[in-house]
Amino acid sequence: MAAKFETDFGQVLPPPRSQQGVTGWVRANLLSTWYNGVLTVMSAAVLGAALWVGVRWLIFDSDWTVIGTLGGQLVIGQYNIESACPGQNCFWRPQVSLLLVTALLGMAWRVAGGGLTKRIAIGVAVAVSAFALLPYSMERMGMDVRLLLLANLLVLGVGWAIGRYTPLGTARWATVSAVGVFVVIVLLLRGVPGIPGLEPVSVIYWGGLMLNLLLAVAGITLSLPIGVALALGRRSRLPVVKVLCITFIEIFRGVPLITLLLMSQVLVPLAFPEDFPQNSLFRAAVVITLFSSAYMAENIRGGLQALDPGQAEAARALGLPGWQTMFLISLPQAIRNVIPAIVGQFISLFKDTSLVYIIGVLDVVEFGRAFIQGNTEYLASAKELYIFLALVFWVFTYGMSYVSRRIEQHLGVGER
Amino acid sequence: MSVAWRKVGFVVAALVALGLAGCGSGLSEEDVEERAEARAQEIASQMVEEQKMASGDGMMMAESGDRLRLVRERGKVICASRNDVPGYGYLDPSSGSNVGFDIDLCHALAAAVLGDPNAIEIRLITAAERGPTIQSGEVDMLVRTVTWTTSRDSQWGNYAQTMFYDGQGFMVRKDLGLSSALDLKGASVCVTQGTTTELNLQDFSNQNSLDIEALTFEDTDAVLAAYEGGQCDAFTNDRSQLAALGTALENRSDHVILPETISEEPLGPVVPHGDDQWFDIVKTVMGILIYSEAYSVTSDSVPTVKTGSTKVDRLFGLEGAFGQESLGLSQTVAQDVIRAVGNYGEIYDRNLGSGGINLPRENGRNALWANAPCTDCPKGGQIYAAPLR
Amino acid sequence: MATVLRSLTYRGIPVWRHVKVIQWAIQIVSGIAVVALVVWFFSNIGNAIQERDIPYGFGFLDREYQTPIGQHFLPYESSDTFLYAFVVAFTNTLIVSVVGVVLATGLGILIGVARMSSNWIVSKVSLAYIEFFRNVPLLVQLFFWFYIVLALPPVREGYVVADRLYVNNSGLTIPGVSASSLAAALAWLGLATIAVVAAVVTYRWLAGREIRTGAASYPLLVGCATAVVIGLIGWVAVGAVSGGAPFTPSIPEPEGAFGRISGGFTVAGGLVALLAGLVMYTAAFIAEIVRAGIQSVGRGQSEAARALGLSGMGVLRHVTFPQALRVIVPPLISQYLNLTKNSSLAGAIGYSDLTNIAKTMTQTAPAVSIFLLIMVIYLALSLTYSLIGNLYNRAIRF
Description:
The complex is a heterotrimer. By secondary structure, chain B is α/β, with parallel strands linked by helices. Helix content of chain B is about 35%, strand content about 15%. In chain B, the strands form five sheets. In chain B, strands 11-10-12-9-13 form a five-stranded mixed β-sheet, with helices on both faces. A three-stranded parallel β-sheet of chain B has the order 5-1-6. Chain B has a three-stranded antiparallel β-sheet with strand order 2-3-4. The longest helix of chain B is centred in the N-terminal third of the chain and has 20 residues, at about 30-50. Chain B starts with a helix and ends in a 38-residue tail after the last helix. Chain C has helices at about 1-5, 20-50, 80-115, 120-135, 140-150, 180-215, 220-240, 270-295, 300-305, 310-340, 355-360, 365-395, and strands spanning about 10, 15, 160, 165-170, 170-175, 175-180, 245-250, 255, 260, 265-270. Chains in contact: A-B, A-C, B-C. Chains A and C meet through helix 2, helix 10, helix 11, helix 12 and helix 15 of A and helix 2, helix 4, helix 5, helix 8 and helix 10 of C.
């Protein structure tokens, strides 16, 4: 009888054919139940139809000359036109700004020790320098422009070397340099009176994608800390602070950004004396940042709310003072919980930067829009233009959500 | 303190208070009066010591002559305009600069008062901002296809000179077989938001009880797409714009512009209220453009020595004067202006005519009055300015 | 001196070192500072408005608007006042907001759950959906739907089903009702509300009795009957007073030389495109929120539920989702606000929402006042959403 229970361990049977290879994968992932099968077929049909229509339009009906005509103007807007930069050529200022960013990325690559940062840094440098090879005539796109674009590859290496061989290669110094680079870029673009070659360029000529990116970077870096402060204020036990924070959050969250920007343009200047120096772009940047902070505050509040109160209690029991409990225990966990929401807000902010057309500056969307409105021969190319702009935004925002997902994985969100 | 202001105060308070203050934000009447008095004194003392203006942004001008002084100190003329209307103000495809009929008028003004046609700053504004912008005096001139109406003239600023006569019309599909806009009974009409176009359409519909249904879009590309897709039966705009947009239609010959013109749209530059000298300067510069064309002087043929023709010599400062000095302009201001931007006809051709949106001018309202076959002919154009003498 | 100082104590601690005192001092100072700043700001604006002769005030609200409004759910004539035009515009925005919120929530939850499906293609399609719709600017998406709607045949060549249903690129028209007069319609609607409330009360009462006594009392039937009876009586009564039925059926039919559909209930093409765009866009964000919410529920929970024998759907419905709601609700409300505010892009594709109409109004009325007004209206709408959301949030908190 005993022999009946003997198993030959030496012979491991392979899983049945139906669970192996392509068939097995299809069965397990696509057809596990009847409704899964239906879903699979329906999804495939929708995808197929969309692809069919899209590809046909792309091949037969689309005309992309409008993008070629706009070219570099989509990147810097009117920054280099005659009335912005009288008697000189200002194109090098945005380009040097770009080089500084690349150098910073190179440094970050070294400091973060490869991985995602490395891929982003190399990707950006390669993509940017690839623009040097665009098939424009030398008159439209001179050798100087092309060389400065190619220099990004070199500068990436320089940045990496700075991180490797100088004492600046620590996370702390990298952060300081990032802030420094931002300030230098703003100074470079704005110009300094009295220095030849660096004549001031009025902010009304700042434009193109450059403007969207500047506003987004400033907004993103500032809205997170302000949002944290507001969220803490809203949860504070001090009634006045609480009421102030709630009022601020609800007002800024409750009104469309476009209305806020309009008000900042029409009403706010009236509050200051007539000879007070006004800067419409600065006002817009402040409004966008505050608007985003209000949303950020609510996201972070959601994260704090989901936190087990035991965490803070344990920290207090260990003798940590209140602020340390908050900044070392509660906040990191709260922020971790709501990374998707925070990144979603960053994405919104980046897309919202295109609303600055309200103050009369030409960001990348407005430049394209105004161009086709005013030049009727391109009016029929509206579809191509908007699809191209969507693609441009998509590249940046997808990048953000990709990084966010990698960070989530790294922190193990949803695994615990 | 008027009732209306109390209402503003109330709304503002409701906005900001929300459990904060609850009280009104306004000041008491005495406060306002006190402030106004203090303000008046301040202005007076400033004027005594010949106020120095560091930055012109947002400066409010009240006295004749101040504006010219301010512009010269600032070194550039600020014009409020736009960049998305074919012909009038648009982005140049090769350089991305602002160009167009309206922009050229700004160049002409800069050439006249500063001697440098490029010393301009174009401030791009939306239709809703036109009034507040010129009222606050933060710009020197508003040239943004603004229709001259009496209420705007009284509230916004002074209309200097009509530089273009436009009027609103309709475009429809040929196969509808319409011969008049009065046949549009029950039609759906696409219209661009932000100008008097919508109001004129409603007036026209009411007057003729046409019961027109209006579809309002923000941008012309959407209007055009909706019209071509058949969402509306007609679209309406100023006739110059209809002509320009016609080129964007897939098949222009399938569409016709109906004969009716349902509104008067005299367009031209506007200057802020309060500075008569500046108002006169702008009028004079516009006159220079018009009379140069009448005398057939183009940017290439600007005379620098006497030509023998008294009128031409006076215009170009070679003999006599037409009031340049009292306006604070140089004797040869016309030479600067015409050399920089050309005469009215050249500006028209470059932007609205063959070089631009191809709007015919011969025998139309925008031909020169001076070019009419005889002085009293009823058929002459309407472009006319005060004689320069 | 020392005695004076000693007397300045609060519960044994010197006043200036007591936490409570310091906190209150800081609060009062900061509160006063903020209020002062706000007052200074707005009084400056007030002065400037007067000095620079900028038109302001709200007298225009009583004037006739005299401008066309494309689509309107409330009856509108160009001789109506600005104030009433504001009401019409607000209704247009409100309808988009409410319908959009409902649809976006449904679609968002669906996509969010599908994102975590075990079906590979479903999960990847949801991921693609989220990454596409979330990352492409809304305006571009609105144009996309605008062109899709335009691809439908124009009104004279549109689809007609049984002479009752009209589908074309100007909109979708179905038979509807038209009110004979505003007063009669409102009166009957009031009575109908009472009827529904009475029906619910009856239903509850009878259902409660059934549970208590066990006697069959047909709560559903009686409840419905109550509503119908009160509604009918109201109909007849209102009809008798106003001399005609409060509502008459309205059958759509083409009219005039241009074949525009008149009568019936029309959902305009612009509204369809706007709703499609807003719902698809917001659903992508909601899907991510739902996913984050579900993931925030510990794995052990769903494993335990599975061990207890619940089906996949059952785990989601009875265990995971109710717990996830706590993390979901606050950001979800933000999305509702976003949807409402994003509807202000409607002007681009020809739907007459509040912002679109307000921009037109600035042609004939002071811009500053109009923008203040729409700010207040949006704020009120948002605060209502926030309030409802926060009440719900409180109800489901730990």
